[in-house]
Amino acid sequence: MKTEHSTNPQVAVKDVWKSFDRGRIEVLKGVSLDVCKGELVALCGTSGCGKSTLLNVVSGLEDIDRGEVAVLGHDVVDEKTRVKLLRFHIGYVFQFHHLMPDLTLAENCLVPVIAAGGSRAGALERLAELAEATGLSHRLKQQVRELSGGERQRGALVRALMNDPEILLCDEPTGALDEKNRDNVMELLMDLVRSRGRTMIMATHDLDLAKRCDRTMKMRDGRIEGEIR
Ligand SMILES: Nc1ncnc2c1ncn2[C@@H]1O[C@H](COP(=O)(O)OP(=O)(O)OP(=O)(O)O)[C@@H](O)[C@H]1O
Ligand SMILES: [Mg+2]
User: Fold this and answer.
1) What CATH topology corresponds to 11-227?
2) pTM for the full model?
């Protein structure tokens, strides 16, 4: 799979419908969203409107009922494609971190590098840099179960950035952080994403954070209502 694509957008969601419980719970009701290379898009909207579901659909972690989802020009519906995208091209900061509690933070962060076949030496160097930037250097050797909620959240961000992915999906990446840590983490994230021309979609309830993105899209009841300006 090529990593450079001339075709824009890098994320193309077209009239996507997604339900759970055999159609009884309709969550996405015709969502369309295009995100170009280097663009930072915030997704806002009340709890339950479908932000996390949309990010899961973009990552290929959730199947869709109908519609089209393409990332880097590749159809996410195809299973082989989605594995490659997740392994090499997408970083995902989950709403509830999903770190493995019995592994150390460092081990958790090395998992995506191992999955992508990256070099251990390079990974350790990057891990040290990212841990330093997020204030986690002294926590790397601890089991995740011993970390605070905010440390886990920052750890999840480090893990998502380990492979320097082209597409970063962030689901409430600062929800568990105090203001100072929130600002630090956002600065790091914005710097990395902007300086490397990466593409980011971030679900957030925090309108201050959303304002730092290029566009803020408002979701409501499974649809994108429009842009908040
Ligand atoms: N696996 C599932 N099975 C059934 N319903 C689900 C499932 N996942 C999500 N839902 C429902 O879909 C709706 C949208 O959920 P989603 O997590 O996408 O909302 P959200 O916008 O991310 O909310 P929040 O701001 O609280 O994180 C909710 O009503 C939720 O209960
Ligand atoms: Mg959510």
Assistant:
1) Rossmann fold (3.40.50)
2) 0.94
